[in-house]
Specification:
The structure holds 2 protein chains of 2 kinds. Chain A is mainly α. Chain A contains 17 helices and 1 strand. Chain A has a single domain, classed as Ammonium transporter fold. In chain A, helix 3 packs antiparallel against helix 4, helix 3 packs antiparallel against helix 11 and helix 16 runs antiparallel to helix 17. Chain A is globular. Among the domains of chain B are: 241 residues, no CATH class; 67 residues, no CATH class. Helices cover 22% and strands 22% of the residues of chain B. Chain B contains 11 helices and 21 strands. The radius of gyration of chain B is 22 Å and the shape is globular. Chain B starts with a strand and ends with a helix. The chains are: A mainly alpha, B alpha/beta. Chains A and B meet through strand 1, helix 3 and helix 17 of A and strand 21, helix 10 and helix 11 of B. Strand 1 of chain A pairs antiparallel with strand 21 of chain B, so a sheet runs across the interface.
Amino acid sequence: MNFLRKKLDEIKRPFQKGEKFEKFAPAVNAFDTFLFVPNHTTKTGSHIRDAVDLKRTMVTVIIALIPALIYGIYNTGYQHFSQLGGDFSFLDAFLHGAWKIVPMIVVSYVVGLSIEFAFAVYRGHEVNEGYLVTGLLIPMIMPVDIPLWMVAVSVAFAVLIAKEAFGGTGMNILNPALTARAFAFFAYPTYMSGNKVWVSEASSMDGVSGETILGTLAADGNVNYSMFEMFQGSIPGSIAETSTLWIIVGGIILIATGIGSWRIMLGSVLGAAFMGFLFNLWGSNALMSFSWMNHLVVGGFAFGVVFMATDPVSAAQTAKGKWIYGVLVGIFCIMIRVFNPAYPEGVMLAILLMNVFAPTIDHYVIQGNINKRKKRWASTLKSA
Amino acid sequence: MSTGIRTRRGAKINLKGGAEKILHIAVPSETYALKPDNFFGIVPRLMVKEGEKIAAGAPVFHAKHNPEILFVSPISGTIKEIRRGAKRKILEIVVDAQNGDTVTHEIKPINTLKREEVLETLLKSGAWAFFKQRPYGVVADPEADFKSVYISAYASGPLDVDFDFLLKNNKQDFQKGIAVLNQLLPGKVNLGVDANFKGFFENVEGVNLLSISGAHPAGNVSFQIQKNDPINVGEKVLEIRPEDVLNIGLLFSTGQYHAHRTIAVAGGSVGKPQYITAKIGAEISSLIKDCDIDNTIQNRFINGNVLSGATVASNGYLDFYNNLLTVIPEGNDYRLFGWLPFVDNKIPSLSKTSFSWLFKNKGYEVNTNLNGEERALVVTGEMEKVFPMDIYPMQLLKACMAGDIEKMEALGIYEVVPEDFGLIDYVNTSKIEAQEIIREGIELMIKEVG
């Protein structure tokens, strides 16, 4: 360890203050602090600090994402081979999926982190760890056959427009990963919807039946999957969104470590269940009469609620606000699913919509606190 | 009269090196120092010169804006040095302790005193400096109209002192101090005590007893005021530390200014953590002589607790408002992959990404490592968990950063002091200096609003 430390200090010498490459220090520091927690001590304020930092927080989210990612990789292969017919093993499916998905992750990280590093150097602050999560989320919510260059363009758009334009990590209004998906969705719709994009290499197959469940319902078709298949995730869909089971595992990790807000998750589930139930009572088309329980396990709902809606920067920040925000995400998700004929998935748009309204929700929650205080002031002024 | 106050927010951080409850007498300090920086909101005007003889209780400096507020010497001797910093700012006035006179004031029986007489004695003797005023925690303005006075005998911070142990041998004089406060603000004296252990405070007369249950910062006066009777715009509240109530009691029995300070020397680097009786402004080195400090490592000396105290050099002096000297190791070393979750569980963490709670009862060994680097504010909800007041801490911090006075006011800046944000400094993932931000916010308020 000492050898490594000495070597690193040697490498960092030209990047120190007053030296030749001082400007590029954030880039080197990012690698150094990835290996070592730095020797910085407290200068002002509290003399002792909690062991948690942003790196640990972000890495915990990545750990929570891994079960869904692994299942997503397997499911990519599973969908491909089961459409082809014939025998295949778990390993075949996994390798096929990895062959498709690993390059997407690499492209996402390379493009996104390059921009992040450039901005850190330009603005003279350290590299924020937020992109470690965003960079993994973006490929996980894309259809598997999307060309890599589209991934790259979406990532660049998300990081530049949704994040850096607002001032970087912590300042953005919209969730960057969802912005990337929304960008791809509106810029390249043929790659993002329809019945061919959800199965790997479907364009080279004949007679693919790879429509998502929500797509089938929107076309008033019959769903041929059991609720267990939907829950376990062996259905077509974006890479990592299909398995509610493994997403719940991730959700449990997030709640147990206190990183993800259980208020938002529970609020969304309650909101969606309520809305689904109402539509069940109405029941005028296939999507409306689709059982509210099934609504919770198909499409991107689970993934969106666990990993996207809980993004602390773009969600509501007050405890009360988180409840309201969560419930509304759930309600709007199901509403958009049912009423939007062009695209039967609502969670992406519901979360983006609520991202925009989160500051308003917080404003009213905080205004409540302010009003209480001002009322108190007024009552003492009157009695004086 | 007794009022119960309860909170479930906040946190107790159990550190190693709590002071053993035996009173030791400090080795006599050769020099003493007064530090104008201890008195927030005061610009000092010197009343002595270097080399001048000074009696115990004689004024050393007064407040520039109000010559009535005197700051007096805790002992008799000679002014040894006036240490100045940048722009000739006065840092310390060092007094060489020698035998000499003590200023004695004329004293009448307490129950015959009028409010004005009490005030005059407090001001003349220099004991007025014991009072701080809310909002802002500045040295109190003697002309202001105060709503009430608060004493917190519940020190809830890490390694903090037990005021019952500190004062129980001087019950009568403490009670006398309370009687003086009652002459100043009749029936408006509030005494906060730990609901789990009230000690002799339970039987103190002439106070509204606030029985506090909850972890730090429940012992802070801000919290107790807000739960009991919150400060409204334009209102002022006095605050005084328990040992200074005793000092005032002694002043009104003897006619002399008393500067007693019982100090707990505690922390991971202290071999024999103990209570020591000394005087305000004593040399740190005189206090730690028998405490067996581990000198093989680099230590940090802190006047106060690890959350809100001030760093002091090992050859420095005690602060004015302070009963605790914490000594912990510096943490200027690297930790390989220390940022991984569930790694380095010995570092106390309130986050559930660590198993450190398993070692809760053993007492943590802490150091001053930042355990990360400063980042943008990302995580939400963690500050609220350790902030028991009815205030949105993150929003108040942001208003302070933006310098938005109207918002700071609306969000409750009048009700807080920097110390209340000590745990927020500690817990926040982004390593934001919350106390510093609040201090700057308060300075802005004083400058702009007054």
